[in-house]
Amino acid sequence: MKRFSWDEMMNRYPAFFAILLLVVALIINFILQPNMFARDTLNSNMRVFLPMILLAAGQAVVILGGGIDISVGGIVSIVNTILATQVGLNGSPEKMWTYVLVSIGAGILAGAINGFFIAFLRLQPIITTYATSFLYVGFALFILPNPGGGIPAEIANIYRNTTPLGLPLAFYVIAVILLIWMYIRSTRFGNYLYAVGGNAEAAYETAVPVTWVIFTTYVASGFMAALAGVAITMLSGSGNAEIGVPMTLTSITAVVIGGTALSGGVGGVAGPVVGAITLGIIQNIISFSRIDTWWETFVKATIIVVALAAPGIINLLRRKKV
Amino acid sequence: MQRKPLFTILALIMVISMVLAACGTPATPTTEVQPTQPPQTGQQPTQPPVESKGPPFTIGISNPFISSEYRTQMIAELIEVNKEYMDKGLTTELVIESADTDVAGQIQQLQNLMAKGVDAILVNPSDVNGLNATLQEAVSKGIIVISVDQELNVPGVYNVGIDQKEWAKTSAKWLAEKLGGKGNIVLIEGFPGHPANVARMEGVDEVLSQYPDIKVLAKDTGKWDEATGQQVMSNFLAAYPNLDGYWTQDGMAIGALQAVIAANPAKFPVGVGEGRCQFLKLWEQVLKDRPDFETIAVANPPGVSPTGLRIAVNMLLGKQVDKSKLGGANGLSFVIPVPIVITKDNLQEGLDICKDKPDAYLLDGIMTDQEVLDTFFLK
Q: Is the minimum CB–CB distance between A52 and chain B shorter than 8 Å?
């Protein structure tokens, strides 16, 4: 009976393990850093995690649809450089919000370019987005060759210090993401997405508009990457064309830790959101556990590998017991 | 509705954290950073003065890039110099946040240091502006913040480092003069936009503008990486076989020289080297075949960080900085002199230093506690 419920939990709720992992990570972090739930600490952590949460949510949609988006970091960079160059350190709030809209448009466009190549021209997602990632980072470098520029500090502080009802802004954003995702999941598109990700051919034969579904996932990813770009720009307050580059692989890691399989069709968006938070918490744990400096990278990588492998290991052990 | 439990769990977590957030006392009173009125140095606005707290002090280090000898040597020296103060009971073990990370990651590093309640932060910034708000937050908490190695323009944040621009001008001037003021050269730069690289390239441009007959054929980035530097230099040599000279900087100079050796042109271009033992040894070898080979190594000392540590400790002890000795945009920069420049004339001196050092060792200099006091503090 017990075995049945574990398997069932794992199969039916791909985010189950991600949440388990997060809870464990939170407990460890809390032991090492007793003030971590203090309002300030919580907010300062969440504002750093939020860009990755947004990015991972978009990445999850693409991966669910059977693809992968390696260009998300490039899109983050484009958005960051647009805001940093066009708004400027002394820009007005109106200017800021105008260019936020412009850069979200740019993100959607970048996603649409990916989607066009992959869905309509049937190119390999991994190669296509790898190539476009250079296109996007290159474009960002063209906009802003040297780091600099920025957005007004007052606007950055809205992002940094807004805590409605004493809760970090990120919590509300997460709630909105999850609500929207719940809604999408219940629509026809939601079903199509899982069908395409699970088996595109079979989906095609059952009259699912595969091309459009795939196209849409990349547009969604571009949109979320643009939001992540806005978030990280407001976090750092400055421009740097390389800012998004290291974020790409982390977003994929967050998706996988979140129980969404790279093969597509399995998982959801909630898990990757949780995964992104877990990755951030892991960094905190490393930081507060006073591990010897030279071992930090190794230990962090080990934890991530174990976290990635844990569901598989548990299943393997359970099978052996029988 | 098969998804329901999942959201119940999520909601539960949110509720729990909500409760915890409400119960937990804020680590510090919510201090809004006011960027329009930056806190002036010396008079930290919000928290009670640091002076009220006696030793031992805790000093935090934030380093976002570990894949270079410079950073490795820097961290090792910081630990070593801190031991000196620990033995005197002035400091505790350093709190080191050091890992390859991005801007968001370094913000997290700094926030964690603040959460750990350090008294001073030495930060080697990954971005010219990206850390500004976070660093100001630290300053407003009464933490002494020192940017080492790269100069930042943040009110209240001190800088300790060599003058990167002057540093680059030394070798650029030497190159221009060795070429007799004319010839075709290429430039290999570090990370474009990295504060130190920007300052250095400004210095190079400034020098070269005085030599109109020196033509820069091309410029590319070697990303402060030996292998990339070698690749870039190979490409340049293939494209311009009659190159007269090249300017590059640390990390990439060995790669560049190795590319020259591999290409083996009739006449070796005059190149800029780096103050690393491995380079000096390579230089010595090249001289055996080509005694007229010319290069220069200007030390870029990782020792500025431990020197910064000494400055931080003395400031925490309440000693007064002699403001007239500081430079920079905000008048908050401690400029450390370059400890050593190696040319053909004193190559042996450099090789002697390297005798018992690993190949990766960078020619260095750490100011002593007394030197720091004499140079930067009021008597």
A: yes
Q: How far, in whole angstroms, is CA B34 from its chain's centroid?
A: 28
In a domain, residue B11? The reply is no
Give the residue-averaged pLDDT of A196-218.
Answer: 86
Size (chain A), residues:
322
Q: What number is the average pLDDT over the span B315-344?
A: 89
Q: Which residue has 């290409």 as its token pair?
A: B263
The label of the residue with tokens 């930290």 reads: B44
Residue A94 lies in a domain: yes
**B311 neighbors B122 (Cβ within 8 angstroms):** no
- Top residue of A163, A235, A287, A303 to mutate, by most chain B CBs within 10 Å, is A287
The three-class DSSP label of residue B82 is helix
Is there a domain that residue B317 lies in?
yes
Provide the Cα torsion B187, B130, B304, B277; round to 10°.
Answer: -40
Residues of chain A contacting B104 with CB distance shorter than 8 Å: 48, 51-52, 232, 235-236, 247
Least CB–CB distance from A283: residue in B108, B192, B194: B108
CA of A89: which chain B residue's CA is closest?
B129
How many residue contacts between A and B have a Cβ separation below 8 Å?
Answer: 166
Per the CB < 8 A criterion, the answer to whether B363 and B301 are in contact is yes
Model confidence pLDDT, tens digit, residues A76-113 = 999 999 999 998 888 888 889 999 999 999 999 999 99
Same domain, residue pair B194 and B292: yes
Same domain for B308 and B291:
no
Q: Is A5 contained in some domain?
A: no
- Specify if B355 maps to a domain: no
Task: Judge whether A190 is closer than 8 Å to chain B, CB to CB.
Answer: no
Looking at the complex, report in whole angstroms how far the Cα of residue B26 sits from the nearest Cα belonging to chain A: 5
Burial bucket for residue A312 (CB in 10 Å: 0-12, 13-18, 19+): exposed
- Answer for the pair A7, A259: CB distance below 8 angstroms, yes or no: no
CA torsion angle A253 A257 A263 A266 (round to 10):
-140
ipTM comes to: 0.80
| Final residue before a domain boundary, out of B277, B298, B319 | B298
B23 CB neighbours in chain A (<8 A) are 37
Read off the CATH number of the domain in which B145 is found: 3.40.50.2300
Q: Pseudo-torsion of CA B66, B72, B76, B81, nearest 10°?
A: -90
Q: Chain B residues with CB inside 8 Å of A87's CB? A: none
Which chain A residue has its CA at the smallest distance from B23's CA?
A38
Query: Looking at chain B from residue 226 to 285, which residues have their Cβ under 8 Å from any Cβ of chain A?
Result: none
In this complex, the residue of A44, A51, A296 whose CB is nearest that of residue B111 is A44
> Distance between CA atoms of A222 and B57, rounded to whole angstroms?
47
For residue A68, the domain's CATH number is 1.10.3470
Give residue A10's pLDDT band: very low, low, confident or very high (50, 70, 90): low
